[in-house]
Amino acid sequence: YDDDFMKLITKELKNSFIENYGIEANDIFTFYAEEDLEKQQEQVEKLMERGVCGLIIQAVEEAKIPALADQCAEKQIPVVFINSEPAEEEKQRWSEEKIAASWVGTDGRQAGAYQGQLILESPEHGDFNGDGMVSYVMIQGDLDAEDTKNRTEYSVNTIVSSGIEVEKLGYAIANWNRAQAQNKMTQLLSQNGNKIELVIANNDDMAVGAIDALKASDLSREEWPVVVGIDGTDVGLEAVKNGEMVGTVYNDKEGQAKGMLELSFTLATGGNLEDLNLEDGKYIRMPYAKVGPDDVDEYLDR
User: Fold this and answer.
1) Least CB-packed of 41, 57, 105, 129 within 10 Å?
2) What is the reported pLDDT for 104?
3) pTM of the full structure
């Protein structure tokens, strides 16, 4: 529950289930697995024993999605997985074995590419010392997550493919967490000081954590590096509005929540997925959107 984006998704889901589907608040159960796979499997088992008619799961480990899908299929309870995208062969297995499972998420490659574009559109594209080289640090989420890999790779590749040279001064793993990112950014600053021209963070929480470290550092505001995030959380958007970040990439929480609701409700009530106009007939992949200083008010009003 310390992930701001997932807090927003959960709030959106609960409100929509109640307002749009007439489901009572006390018939909606939420559990946090605390990154513990065994705990998540136990929670799923307990929910099945309660007789729930559908599950929405953010898997602790992408590799364990097949086991969770089988756990639900055994009890004939439909499941919608969110965020972490199952492997193509797993999605194919669902179709072949007629498992009532689906997925809602995004493409981390697009998020990374948009992040790179925001950097290219920033003043001097981050090359403040004018040496023709952008010196950056990378703050990453969970190393095993496909989103981490894609956001990291495509953000840097987008800059490089434009003809700009980059220099990686360092990186840190902060597990999508603001406090961890602040600690790691403090270390990176102690090692590199004002050599850092650019901070690329895999999500807004970590970008804002880096900003917390910058505020506590000896650097003047004019010496701060360019900072970019992903998700378009409230704190991220506010950081763009006040000039602490040059931009974020909006992760459509409203669209994803709507998709999760439609999928889970349709599966739980035996409806026809074909009526939902889904990717490959079963999945929803929501697009991202770039948010720079000129766009931020529109997204803050959502």
Assistant:
1) 129
2) 94
3) 0.90
